[in-house]
Amino acid sequence: MELILWRHAEAEDGFPDMARRLTAKGEKQAEKMAVFLRSHLPQNIRILVSPAKRAQQTAQALTKNFTTEPAIAPEASPKVILEKSGWYGGEGCVLVVGHQPALGEVAALLLTGKPEYWSIKKGAIWWFVRRGDEKNSDIALRLVITPDLL
Description:
It is a single chain. By secondary structure, the protein is α/β, with parallel strands linked by helices. The protein has a single domain, classed as Rossmann fold, CATH 3.40.50. Helix content is 28%, strand content 24%. It is built from four helices and six strands. The two termini are 25 Å apart. The mean pLDDT is 96.
């Protein structure tokens, strides 16, 4: 199983939160990461995206073929993100486009066993690989990259 966490790119401030759009810089961040991902993603990937406008726009830089998942909206819990991704007992590769602090908490949970606050930069991806089954598995951090490094 592979899980890629992609934090939405830079967004405008404002209200309502769910309607916040990407800034011009955010659009560039999303496009840079999308170009990188297109050349590295496996063919049969499942993509889950928060319903927030900024997450939708980030994902659309990569593809229009994704599933909007209301359960990974802002304020989602790390447990829900892992459940919706199929991390527990699942196979294949799943890309989740979402928000802080939940994505950082997922990263911490996978690497330390505790959902602590870890910061994932806007537009960045964290790519995890799990080998083995649910009870006897190894988790590796395959890649962390931010748009400014591309």
